[in-house]
UniProtKB/TrEMBL annotation:
Keywords carried by this UniProt record: S-adenosyl-L-methionine, Transferase
Pathways per UniProt: Secondary metabolite biosynthesis
Protein name listed in UniProt: Methyltransferase domain-containing protein
InterPro entries, per the entry: Meroterpenoid_MTases (IPR051654), SAM-dependent_MTases_sf (IPR029063)
GO terms, molecular function: transferase activity
Length: 275
């Protein structure tokens, strides 16, 4: 398992974010501040690989092919009198949310959701904005009926207020945490939150075919969903106009078995059959 590297370097993405958001331009000062945050992360119930590799220090949503499309589409909807809500499921420390705000997305129209409240609180510490950030954060498990009711006949769970209200739903580095049936369940439940015409976007590790392999570094069994199978799951849940893009991940591929791990990035439009 990879560990937190005490000698990590502040990259250009982190430098730009912290310079703009906190006004810190000194690389060493940024690095010290991040290392203080890392101490808190080490006490977390779960420390994902992306955290141990310091990917929380720079935005990961902004480089995606659909990011500028979201910002431009929001602007058009706002000009037409709409107030489109963006939900980030698996927001972790909320790094992407801070970048969205820097890029003009109003915080009052953003909802961050994560399984662990601890990550959300550490995000406040990392970005020093607990008393100023106007984003709504909610912690809970999307698979839990007491967090998101599975039917419109029940409206008592914390996420129920957002049913059919979300215009942009982001699930970055989330789907690859699940097995095949969990992926299907996640997408079905995510669809409960979507407005017709809303966009579901995400990025995660998949494969050229659906398979399960033991990862050498982590030692666990990982499920890889193929792009074709994921497209079918999205279509079955009411999504259309699916744009799925893939780049190869050599570190998790098995060339001797013909398996190629892929970084899958997608955008899909929610068009349920009754609309």
């Amino acid at each position: 398992m990879t560990e937190f590297d005490p000698d990590f370097k502040v990259d250009n993405g982190a430098l730009a974010l912290f310079s703009q958001y906190l006004g810190i331009n000194d690389v060493d000062q940024i690095r010290r501040h991040i290392l203080e945050t890392t101490k808190k992360l080490k006490t977390s119930e779960r420390t994902y690989r992306c955290l141990r590799e310091y990917k929380f220090t720079a935005p990961r949503l902004a480089p995606r092919f659909y990011y500028q499309d979201i910002l431009e589409d929001r602007q058009k909807r706002a000009q037409n009198g709409e107030n489109p809500t963006l939900m980030d499921i698996g927001c972790c420390l909320g790094t992407d949310i801070r970048q969205l705000i820097l890029d003009g997305y109003p915080g009052t129209s953003i909802v961050g959701v994560d399984l662990y409240r601890h990550f959300i609180d550490i995000g406040y510490d990392l970005f020093k904005d607990k008393d100023t950030l106007d984003v709504k954060f909610i912690s809970g498990n999307i698979f839990d009926d007491h967090f998101l009711s599975p039917s419109d006949d029940i409206e008592t769970a914390p996420l129920d207020q957002y049913k059919h209200q979300i215009t942009y739903l982001n699930a970055g580095s989330v789907l690859h945490l699940f097995d095949g049936e969990q992926i299907r369940n996640f997408i079905r439940r995510a669809a409960l939150l979507m407005k017709p015409g809303g966009w579901f976007v995400g990025a995660h590790v998949g494969g050229n075919r659906t398979a399960q392999y033991q990862r050498l570094l982590q030692g666990d069994i990982k499920h890889f969903e193929s792009a074709d199978d994921l497209t079918t799951v999205l279509e079955d849940a009411g999504f259309t106009h699916i744009d799925m893009r893939a780049t190869q991940r050599l570190d998790e591929s098995r060339t001797d078995e013909g398996f190629v791990a892929l970084w899958l990035t997608f955008k899909a439009v929610y068009r349920p059959s009754n609309n």
